Each structure stands twice: as C-alpha cells, then as structure tokens.
Amino acid sequence: MAIIGQEIKVTGIVQGVGFRPFVYSLATSLQLTGWVRNTSSGVEIEINGTDESVSAFLEELKTHPPALARIDSIEARPVPPNGYEGFEIRHSQPQPGDFLPVSPDVCTCPDCLRELFDPSDRRYRYPFINCTNCGPRFTIVTDIPYDRPNTTMAGFPLCDDCRREYEDPLDRRFHAQPVACPRCGPQIRFEANGQQIAAGEDALQLARQWLREGRILAVKGLGGYHLACDASNPQAVAELRRRKRRSDKAFALMAFDLAAIERQAQVGPSERNLLESIQRPVVLLQRKPGSTVAAVVAPGLNTLGFMLPYTPLHFLLLEPEPGFPEVLVMTSGNLSEEPIAYQDEDACTRLQTLADGFLLHNRPIHMRVDDSVAEIVDGDQPYLIRRARGYAPDPVQLSYDLPPVLAAGAELKNTFCLTRGKYAFLSQHIGDLENYETLQSFEEGVRHYQNLFRVQPELIACDLHPDYLASRAAAQRAEQENLPLVKVQHHHAHLAACLADNHYTKSDPVIGLILDGTGLGTDGAVWGGEVLVGGLEGYRRAYHLKYVPLPGGDLAVRKPARMALSHLWAAGLPWEEELPPVEALCFEERTALRVQLEKKLNTPPTSSMGRLFDAASALISVRQVVNYEGQAAIELEALADPDENGSYPFDIQDGILDPAPLWEAMLADWRAGESAGTISARFHNAIADALLTICREIRSNAGTSTVALSGGVWQNRLLLHKTLERLRADRFTVLYHHRVPANDGGLALGQALIAAAASRNLMNTKEA
Predict the structure, then answer these.
(1) Structural domain harbouring 66
(2) Are 539 and 675 found together in one domain?
(3) pLDDT on residue 92
C-alpha cells in the first residue's frame, strides 16, 4: 500500500497541555512514522503512512484533542515521505518573531488530587503536585516556547524519578514543565516575625493551627498572596477588615469541596459547573439563611463569593478535620487600592502589619494574577465580573486580522489589550490605576505580554480622559516611539467590546445601552447613561439621561446623599427635612451644597446611570456614604422584592431621559410607607421599561433591532434579567458579555478594535 507524507502545523493553546504526547500516542496507534515538536508559533508535525491512516490521524486531531488544548488552526500539506522508521518527539525549535497563545493556570486535576491524598504515592501530601493536565502555566512562564528553562521552575533540577516521567511520552507528566516531587521541587515554610519556625508538613499544620485559633495568615498561592482567616469567626474577619482598610467590600471565600459550599449558599447546576470548572473563579451565590459565614464577610449583601481550591496547597490547607474551619476567607494579599503582592520580599514587607504569620514557598511567581470573579446570569450563562486567573491570557479570537495595537484601558478595573492577527490578548485584571504601585503593575504586564506574544505596537489607543494614568502612560509612549495615538470615547469602547465579545461582524448598526458610572463625553460632560447607535466605525448618541450637576466631583461619588439632593434640585423638588439624604448631611454641608448647585461651583454635568442608582439608594435610606465603588447600587439591588411588578415613570422626549417624574413617584411611595424592597424593585423596573421604550422608538425610526448591553451597571443581575426579558419579548436580538467583563475590565478590547478601525479608515483615505 502506498505511503504518503503530510506536514502539519497546529496553532492555538497547544503547549503545556499534553499535546505532543497525544500526537505521539495517536501516531503510534495508527502505525504512522515521523515526528512532532514545539515551535514558537505552535506545534509542527510530519507523518508518513497510508492514506487511510493519515486521514484518520487528521480527523482525530481535529475532533478529539487533549482536554486543555484549544486548536485555532490546522494547516496540512502533502510532502514526499521521508522513510522514517518510527515516531519521535523532537526538541523545541524557537522561531524569532513567532508567537502562540499561552495556557492560563489550571486547577489541580482529579488524578493529581488522588495521588495527593494517597499514602502509597511518592508525592503524598506534596503541595506542588501537577501534571500535563493541571498546574501553573501563565504565572510561571518567562518566555516561549513553553519549556522548563523558560519558566520559574528552571532553578529546580529534576531528580531521576521525575526525569523518567518527564521524558516518557506515554506518561501524563511528559514535558509537564512544573513537574517536581518532594526530593527535587519547591518546598513550603512558615514564618512569623521575619523568622522561619517550621517547614514542610509541620509548616502546613502550624498554619492550620493558627487559622483554627482565629489568626490571620498570608498564604502564597499561584499568582500572588492571599490573606486568610476563619470565615465563621466575626472577630477575625473584623480584624482583617481593620488591618486591610477595607470596611465593607465583600471578601472572597474558599471551601474544601462543593458539599461545604452547598451548606452555606444556593448552588444550582450552572453554578456547580462554574465552581468546578478548570478556571475555578470566585462565584457569586445566594447566601442560605442558616449560613455560618460571619455577616461581616459581606455586609449588607445576600450573596457570598465562593471558590474551590485550585492548587494542592489549598487542598491541604482546607482539608476537613473536626474543629477546623469549614470556610476560609481567602482575599487578595494587599492593602486596599494596592496591587496583590506576589514577590516574597515585597510581600513580607507590605503584608507584615496585615498578617500574623506567613505560609510561604520557594517557587517564584513571574506574573501576578488575582482571582477571577463570575456569576451565572440568564439561566445558565457564566458572566465575568473580573477576568484574571484561569482566563488570562487566553486571547479573544477575532474574525479578521488587526494591526499590532496596544490599548491602555481605563482608570478603574484596568486591563490592557495587545492585538496581533486575529488574537486580542486582553490582560488579567490589573486594578484601579490610582497610585504608582498599580501603574508599575500595569507597565510590568505590558512588557511581559509584548515579550510573550512578540507584539511591537504600531498604534496606541487610550481613553478620552486625559488625566487617567493609563491615558497618560499611553500618550507618553506614543510620543516617545512616534506612534499614532487614538483617543477613544469611553462608552463607544464599551459598545465595541460587547460586539467583539459576541463575534458581531455585520455592518448594520446596533443599539448600545451603555450604562456605567463615569466616562468622559465628547462634550466635556461626565457620561454614563447612554443609548448609542452605531458600531466600530462610529456612533451617534441617540438618547441619554438628563444632565444633573455632580457636586464636588468625586465627593458626590463617595456621598450618595449629595447625589440624591442634586437630583431633587435638578427636578425642582424640595429638600424636605425628613428625607433621609437631608438628614444625612449637616446644615452647613446642605447650605454649602445648595450654593454650589445654584452658582455652578465645581458641578460638572453628568448623565451617569451609576449616580442615578446612588441617588435612589440614598433617597430611601439604603446608603448615604459608600466605602467601595458601586456599594449603594449593590445594596439597593439586594433589597429588591423579586415579585414586585410596579414601575415608575420617566419623561422621554427629544433624546433625553428625564427622571424627574420617577423621583416624585418614589417620594410618594416612601411617604406612604412602602417598603424599601418594593421601591427598589419599582426603580429597577422603571429603568428596564424606559430602555424598552427607547429601543422601540429607535427601531421604528432606524429599523435597528439588535441591542448591545455594556458598562458596569449591567453587573446588576436584577436589571440585566428584567431588561433581557422585556427586549426579547419584544423581538429584539440582545447581545451581552460572555468572555470579558461588562465593566471597565473589558474596555481595552473595545479601544483596540476602534483604534484599528480608525487606522484602516485613515489608510483607505490616504490610498483614495
């Protein structure tokens, strides 16, 4: 039978996921000869065999790749057979300028977990057990190809036993780059007051003892440090809040298994799948009435954010035992507003006053990555709130090529984006760019992504706001490197991000319901309640919330009471003494506020939907001062009666959404003694009803029936549900986020696409 040859190139996430052993096993089972190797752009294969065997190989490659692999392309071309005698795995071949996606970090697999707790296994209770199917990836890789010398495991030479596994193509640890064992790999230790007081299993048991006693620990994880304590101990949690300077924002939680989480929160099938996914995000769940988690973990909320262990060390630390806490607080190791600590020396300095003791290890972390946060919406759809560990740096795939673009993102919830070809590499969550430390983290991340994915930007994009640190950094780099700088309006970027997230490539314009807290408008006002019609190429502002003064700028954001009184003033409604926001401010502050409003002193106009929520929250005494972004709206949503169908009116005309009638109706309900839950539900219904009315009007005039939902306000699950329900019932096609957050964490993706579109238009104009 005739022998043919095929040369095959595979791109995608195909390194560090067991791809070469899979190819080896498949080829040998089909009696094919040839070779496979990693390159800087993917995996190359050459096979010789019968036409039938080669066809079977290609079909299996396409349809049943390894579980962690993601194939983006397979290119095969015939070549003359080379007379190979067997099949081999060849050494990696670096190729200057080439690149490939890198796998995110992956949670411990079932096989490794069984070995971890098997007394007869040589890796029994070893905190760094891993294989090709699990373990660290992105946080330890320093360069590509993804080989051990290009990871932070380069300093741990393999022992003979580990090397045999590493070099055996039929072993699941074949070329698992972080592979190690107690003899040759990283080790844990416990420190207090700058001194090591235990190592190995003793360190682990001492850490568990301290947690049992109510102390606070810094625990070195996969992409940085956590601060941990007993979640059922209100004194320990309160002390952690005091030290971390985080007065109200909810803490993330970790439990050993799903059964433990189900004792604390409602877990449906979709939540279960998300909790147990290989990404292991923090998942927002409805708290059960009998939960033993201290109320101070999530003040004012009816949800808890849970994750399952994703490293062997976490499994060992949370191992069930009588008297040991079933649930631990597992929050980012940082002071509020700072980036998560990830380097040992820095962590021991920065966290010294926050933690009583440190559970450390000596495997370096190359890139800091925080935990991802998600929830289930629309019945069964995962909805990312923070995209980080487990998801980044997995690229967003596009349907067309982009030039190399660096998009700097926004001020809050910053991520950046680098593009190359059909890949948009959206970074992990960086944080709020409000200090030098977070700016450093941003710049470190950009350098690493550029190196890893071989991107040299030819175009830079940033937000329209000139004072954002991200915008300043982008402008400075554009000037230094003589690169074009495209300034992108904030809400247009949100719209573009949603379109990219949904693979929307039609030229038809869509209706963008872009709702958030703050974004600089083209008229110099603070936008945030925007209805845009358009796409990547441009937009028109069809409707927006009526402008009201933002008295004192950021001061009004921190004090919703000020925003409530501003809205009442703009609506011509009196500040009656018994109103909660009036009572919340002293006479002097109210007097100064009125003068400020009347004389227009530091009162930039705003159409912010976030500030509308703040005002509603303050008006019915939910929250007069906030300690974290979105707190007033989050607590208002938590109160809403799910069975209430009433609504409040808006005045909608001439492209303006005026809430004056809403405030009158809300005040009437409040005076009549309606519950906060009823009023909150009617407020949410009012917004959903008004948006439906606007979309109907635009469709009747422009024929547009596709609606995109983006902006941080759409993290409000209640509003999202009510709006989806109304729009779909009226035969609208609705796009919302799936792979990137609706909040500013997805903004850089939209910036990159708009900048690329602007660049194309400029080139077309020049050519014409």
Answers:
(1) 3-89
(2) yes
(3) 80
